[in-house]
Design a protein that fits this description.
Keywords: Signal. Helix content is 18%, strand content 34%. It has 224 residues and is an alpha+beta fold.
Length: 224
């Protein structure tokens, strides 16, 4: 029996501490005071390559993982990132694998960051599926997925978590309105004043752009 509990304890400790984030490659550094860390298309955005960060092992504490990646990126002055597909033994390119992935790190001038106007990202909870109402249409979002909504001028959109005491928001297109990110959650969230901060209103949270773009990298897109 003691051996059994020791085995369970060992497995739990491995699961808990298996997450590893390393600065696996440094090509150069860039001096800047940028706080942002945005996702870019490496094929179309002007940028300077700085290095790579590698993530091994899985954790559902996305804010903590992002904080670790952010810290490594800022060590070399990166303000942008892009997912780097891994090449498999048979030389095919792999799809995203949450247990092991790499992000290429870059410096990009602020003017070169891609802009998205009147676009809204809705990011699911990492823990459970949820039914979300987009106006009169119910959509079931699986854990660790996201979807988008393009706002059209003159239209007003209502998004609700459909709970008795749940949250709802109304959205509309505005002139030059920047991209927005929201996450649905039925759980309490990290309120630390740092990278990945959540601004919570009920169980719909508005996310800071850098953290949200990290989530849309490691989560799967869902076409509603």
């Amino acid at each position: 029996m003691k051996k059994f509990f020791f085995f369970l304890s060992f497995c739990f400790s491995v699961f808990t501490f298996a997450q590893k984030v390393t600065l696996s490659k440094v090509a150069q550094t860039h001096k800047n005071t940028d706080k942002v860390f945005y996702k870019i298309n490496a094929d179309s955005t002007a940028k300077i390559y700085l290095g790579e960060v590698e993530v091994q092992g899985f954790s559902d504490d996305d804010a903590k993982v992002f904080g670790m990646i952010y810290k490594k990126a800022k060590e070399i002055g990166a303000n942008a990132f892009a997912w780097k597909p891994l090449v498999q033994i048979d030389e095919t390119v792999s799809t995203f694998y949450p247990m092991h992935y790499k992000l290429e790190l870059y410096y990009a001038e602020p003017k070169d960051f891609p802009e998205e106007k009147n676009l809204v990202y809705f990011i699911a909870s990492p823990y459970k599926k949820q039914t979300i109402a987009f106006d009169d249409k119910d959509v079931v979002l699986a854990p660790r997925t996201y979807t988008t909504l393009q706002l059209i001028p003159g239209e007003i959109y209502t998004v609700s978590t459909r709970k008795l005491l749940g949250s709802s928001i109304k959205l509309s297109a505005q002139d030059d309105q920047p991209v927005q990110y929201f996450q649905f959650s039925g759980f309490s969230v990290n309120a630390n004043q740092g990278a990945g901060i959540h601004f919570k209103s009920g169980d719909i949270m508005k996310l800071e752009k850098s953290y949200a773009q990290f989530l849309t990298t490691i989560y799967q897109f869902f076409q509603k």
